Structure prediction request, 583 residues.
Amino acid sequence: MKPLDPRLLRYSAAARGYLAVTVGLGLAATGLILVQASLLARLLAGAATGTGVPGMGTALAGSLGVLLAVLLARAAASYGGETAALRAAAAVKSQLRRRLTDHALRLGPSWLARHRSGEVTTLATRGLDGLDAYFSRYLPQLVLACVVPFAVLIRVGLADWLSGLVIGLTLPLIPVFAILVGRHTQVVTQRQWRLLARLGGHFLDVVEGLPTLKLFGRGKRQAEVIGRVTDEYRAATMSSLRIAFLSGFVLELAAALATALVAVEVGLRLLAGHMSYQTALLVLLLTPEAYLPLRAVGAQFHASTEGAAAARDVFEILDTPAPAAATPGPRIRRPVDLRQDTIRLVGVGLTYPGRDRDALHDVNLAIRPGDRIGLTGPSGAGKSSLLALLLRFAEPSSGRIEVGGVDLASIPLDEWRGQIAWVPQQPYLFAASVADNIALGQPSASPGAIRAAARAAGAAGFIEDLPQGYATVVGERGLRLSSGQRQQIALARAFLRDAPLLLLDEPAAHLDAASAARLDAALGVPPTSPAPHSFGRTVIQVSHRAPVQAGSGRMLTLDQGRLTQVASLMPAWSAPVLLAASS
Prediction:
């Protein structure tokens, strides 16, 4: 680990003011150390020789008063420096957490699917909390370690060049030993942090899936896995502590031997009369101060490594290019409107990182306003990947997507997603009321509009049977509801939002036949049925099998990332559509 990671400063602009205060107070503390040693040496020398202290008079009292003021000022500087450093740590953690959350959202589900959400959660919480030690203890000590030894060396050299030479020759031993021990510490601490992230991620996943594990009798097995990872983390923690204690012993021993060497040569020259008593006291008082910051920064290095390791993981995520981020392109003369603009996929291919096979290959498709498109195919055929491209959770590896003649990558992300309503296979419900979950994408919706959307999704019946109706709290992830009920609430949420493009990923997977029929009616299947919540919208519905209803628009079949079959079942109200599929 670098002594000072510049990325922490680059990503923590809000903390630079606090860090400047910390550095300023560290410099002030350095000057106070020199003043304190000079005053104390003069007082002790005067008391020992009997000069300057007639009857414990005003001179001694004045000097003691000044010394007391210096001690108080040094304590205030230390307290102020640590307070400013803690505020810097709070600012950095807040900024990094916001950046991490925002970037993870921009990376989208395709990236999150390759990373355990529990590990990311542990990184954003417990991991970044480790930066407190980095900013409040390690950085202030690093400032003192860079300034105090040189200031002491200059002051001692001016008072006694031989003692300054001894200190100058022995000072490098402390950082050398610290570096040698720190290299091994870095490996052990990184392993400790990885185990903690693995433990936190696995534990969160187990808690979320506890009902399923109990149902299939696998709870005991997962408890054993957690116990094994916990033991590994305990062993890694004890190993890290053992190295920290060893490092402290080595640094203390080196500093003690160096201080003893200076004390011996000063004592011998004092006995021989080659050095004054005040100078000897000044050298002996300042010598430990030269080694103390180096020993302290070595000790605080161990306390800060966990937070620094977590920060490196955060930087790796932040440095990951966001597939959904807008890239420079042609200037948009008018806002894109999916109620009148056609979406065209031209030779689109998609390959996920770390995979050899294309998820999509040479897909050509035109989606016009008001289209009803059914997308079928076996698992892994590329259906969800096509939706991911439209949602901009992923960017095409080849080809391009145009909207009204404009490259999709040049459209601002918020503007694009603001025109899309999406119902995933596993919709997320928050620990809020049913009404709040339905109105998630339209917070200003009236109670009447919320009820109308629930009726269109076939959810009104079971919602009204709940203890408090639409005010019933569904719990985290909606675990108090069945899979089908959660799906219907997510459909109501999509219906309520006034979005011209509606993307449905297996919307009827958890619905019974009657609920599925009501969903078809809400979507306008058959096309003669009333569909107030899908009228004027473009609807793309993903399913593993083709629907049995005729006249439902166009049916596309994906197989191994290719559009291999196109069934044109366009109703009278559908506009002509240009469609080309590669074989």
Q: What stands out?
A: The CA atoms of residues 131 and 457 lie 47 Å apart. The chain has 17 helices and ten strands.
